[in-house]
Design brief:
The protein is α/β, with parallel strands linked by helices and 694 residues long. The protein has three domains: 5-259, 2-enoyl-CoA Hydratase, Chain A, domain 1 (Alpha-Beta Complex), CATH 3.90.226.10; 295-470, Rossmann fold (3-Layer(aba) Sandwich); 478-622 and 655-693, N-(1-d-carboxylethyl)-l-norvaline Dehydrogenase, domain 2 (Orthogonal Bundle), CATH 1.10.1040.50. 49% of the residues lie in helices and 11% in strands. The protein contains 29 helices and 17 strands. Strand 2 (13-18), helix 1 (28-43) and strand 3 (49-54) form a beta-alpha-beta unit. Helix 5 crosses helix 10 and helix 13 packs across helix 15. It is globular and about 90 Å long. The chain starts with a strand and ends in a 7-residue tail after the last helix. The mean pLDDT is 95.
Length: 694
């Protein structure tokens, strides 16, 4: 008998219990145990009906995706569900917690389904670049119809029990003891003379094929580059156009295609990496954490207000400090406006708006924040300004308070040096808009205490962020790599590529927008100020591209001035501008650069490969502990396409030798200063390895 599944009888009811903590995943022993238990109870003449239930905190919450790498083993889930669905005795699934993926497919293979009011069901395989591969795309549409099935399976979300009942996914919501309720439900079936009822025998409704065409067109832009959503649509279409067994064969065919695809491999990589990134190498699991009950944010601008919202959303009281009342009032008005807009979209209630606003306490006095547990500084990106703030915080805040800076590029150790407690100082680099973006780049200083690191990594999750720990360097991980791409894209424009050509290459690669559209949206003046600060600090580039600076000096700051690298007649749509084209040509001429035609492939290589090389240097220097930290930062903070898995994963997929060879080629063309392969890249190429072999 399986060690994860057991069966017994209670009167005429057979009981099957799954116990595979923590989430009762469908590993090989669970599948084998289910099949054996069903067969044995079917062979027992005293058993008239069967109840399937799970121990612990949840019903079967999905497949054991570790088996994707190691092999599934027999029996497969499809024949196990087939044994249940074709059983001559009624089988009832009793659901609590979550019935997700293969777990819901098992429940759909049962003849009846009951659930506790708190249960959730769903088929989230699309998030792994896969589709439900054990009949989910064939059975669920027969219960809920085409449109609901498309929303549920392509959307990959979870449905609460009440909605699941309304859709027909579950038959009844039960309260009290689930086991007793499940047995009572089975006994009533018998009393009412109700036998097995297989979903496969339901004749699906007749639907217009335009439903599928329209849905596909509706998601085409949002799901650009992903395979799974479109394969799922084809499977659901098959549920309405083919007999059940042929639909199952179509599902298996498309599932196998996805399993073999680079897109699904990338999405599965991200799934594991997002769970692994919270674990800091070398930091003991039992490291004590500081208690965070209250917070304060310095600065009520766009970033500060967004950061404050994260704390309020998590139910943590937060003080918002701004020295001038007018700036404080403006910041609070922006926060309220953001919440009101969210309420209008139905994502929160008006009561939620008021509750969260009440958690944000405005102040113009540092004295009001002296008792908080953590302070996050979110003032202007200027070292002198930040140092002044930290000197004040050092004198005001209680001992043991964490002092964090939201700097995106500046030296956290230099900021910490003006305090008497550098062990309490850490970087917390939020991404704009801070109330929306998931990434939080946490920057450990040279003297940052372990308990501060542990606390901030834990706090990241608490406020709804994916925290990645990095070390101190210019730009940390994300912006340091972005700088390499920005530099090359500017050079390419001087050499003859157009901004719109470069933007298209990067958009076609999978980014939501190209570098120049992004720069205009962020505000060209922002990058201008960063470059000014770098020059003041003595960080002079060997080759300086000045054409963007000249655009800024013309008063063109991007979308907000309706003119930047592009023109914006409607305030949003970028239009190539002959004025900018002429300016670029003049700058190239002044620099002695002869412009030429540049291929899309060269653009892709020169924009992407320097990022990879910089990533290799970051790993060598220990700024990031693992390639997965870099990948998670770029996926969640910079719009790197999820179906490519992050820059370091993608580099392994295309082969590091291709990148190394391109570096050698461009070194001959442009000189070695910007085209020197990182020692780690060279070492891995010589050893025939990738970053994920480290």
């Amino acid at each position: 008998m399986s060690d994860t599944v057991s069966y017994s009888t209670q009167g005429v009811i057979g009981l099957i219990k799954v116990n595979n903590p923590p989430v009762n995943a469908l590993c090989q022993s669970v599948r084998a145990g289910l099949k054996e238990s069903v067969e044995n109870l079917l062979a027992d003449d005293s058993v008239k009906a069967i109840v399937l239930i799970c121990e612990g905190r949840t019903f079967i919450a999905g497949a054991d995706i570790n088996e994707f790498a190691t092999g599934m083993g027999e029996p497969g889930l499809v024949p196990v569900i087939g044994t249940m669905e074709t059983a001559a005795k009624p089988i009832v699934a009793a659901i609590h917690g979550t019935a997700l993926g293969g777990g819901l497919e098992v429940a759909l293979g049962c003849h009846y389904r009951v659930a506790l009011p708190t249960a959730l069901v769903g088929l989230p395989e699309v998030n792994l670049g896969l589709l439900p591969g054990a009949g989910g795309t064939q059975r669920l549409p027969r219960l809920v119809g085409a449109e609901a099935a498309l929303e549920l399976i392509v959307g990959g979300g979870h449905v609460p029990a009440a909605q699941a009942k309304a859709l027909g996914i579950i038959d009844d919501i039960v309260k009290g003891d689930l086991l007793e309720a499940g047995i009572a439900y089975a006994e009533k079936l018998l009393a009412d003379g109700k036998g097995p009822r297989a979903i496969r025998d339901i004749t699906p409704e007749t639907v217009d094929s335009a439903i599928f065409d329209n849905y596909e067109a509706g998601i085409a832009r949002k799901q650009r580059g992903f395979l799974a959503p479109f394969h799922i649509i084809n499977c659901i279409r098959a549920a309405f156009e083919l007999p059940f067994d042929e639909g199952m064969a179509r599902e298996q065919e498309l599932f196998d295609e996805l399993m073999a695809s680079s897109e699904s491999a990338a999405q599965r990589h991200i799934f594991f990496a997002e769970r692994e990134v919270a674990k800091v190498p070398g930091l003991p699991k039992d490291t004590a954490k500081r208690d965070i009950k209250t917070a304060a944010i310095i600065g009520a601008g766009t970033m500060g207000g967004g950061i404050a919202m994260n704390f309020a959303n998590a139910g943590i009281p937060v003080k918002l400090l701004e020295l001038k009342q007018e700036f404080l009032d403006k910041g609070l008005a922006t926060i309220r406006g953001n919440y009101e807009n969210t309420a209008k979209k139905g994502r929160i209630t008006q009561a939620d708006v008021e509750t969260r606003m009440a958690l944000i306490e405005p102040t113009t006095s540092y004295d009001d924040i002296k008792g908080v547990d953590i302070v996050i500084e979110a003032v202007f990106e200027n070292m002198d300004v930040k140092k002044e703030v930290f000197k004040t915080l050092d004198g005001v805040c209680k001992q043991g308070a964490i002092l964090a800076t939201n700097t995106s590029t500046l030296d956290v150790d230099e900021i910490a040096s003006v305090t008497q407690r550098p062990q309490d100082v850490i970087g917390m680099h939020f991404f704009s808009p801070a109330n929306v973006m998931r990434l939080l780049e946490n920057v450990r200083g040279e003297k940052t205490a372990d308990d501060v690191i542990a606390t901030v990594m834990s706090l990241s999750k608490r406020i709804g962020k994916i925290g990645a720990l990095v070390g101190v360097c210019d730009g940390f991980v994300g912006n340091r790599m972005l700088h390499a791409r920005t530099r090359e894209s500017a050079f390419l424009v001087e050499e003859g590529a157009t901004p719109e050509q470069i933007d298209k290459v990067l958009f076609d690669y999978g980014f939501p927008m190209g570098p120049f559209t992004m720069a205009d949206m962020a505000g060209l003046d922002v990058g201008y100020k960063v470059r000014e600060e770098r020059r003041k600090a003595g960080k002079i580039e060997q080759r300086d591209s000045v054409w963007i600076d000249k655009i800024v000096e013309m008063g063109r700051h991007g979308q907000k001035t309706n003119a930047g690298i592009y023109l914006y007649e409607d305030g949003r749509t970028p239009i190539p501008d002959p004025v900018v084209k002429d300016l670029i040509a003049q700058c190239a001429k002044d620099a002695g650069i002869e412009q030429r035609q540049i291929s899309d492939q060269e653009i892709l290589e020169r924009c992407m490969y320097p990022m990879i090389n910089e990533g290799a240097l970051i790993l060598e220097e220990g700024i990031a502990a693992r390639p997965l930290d870099i990948d998670i930062i770029w996926i969640n903070g910079y719009g790197f396409p999820a179906y490519k898995g992050g820059p370091m994963f993608w580099a392994d997929q295309i082969g590091l030798k291709n990148i190394y060879d391109a570096y050698k080629k461009y070194a001959l063309q442009f000189g070695e200063h910007y085209w020197q392969p990182a020692p780690l890249l060279e070492k891995l190429v010589k050893e025939g390895k990738g970053f994920y072999d480290l």
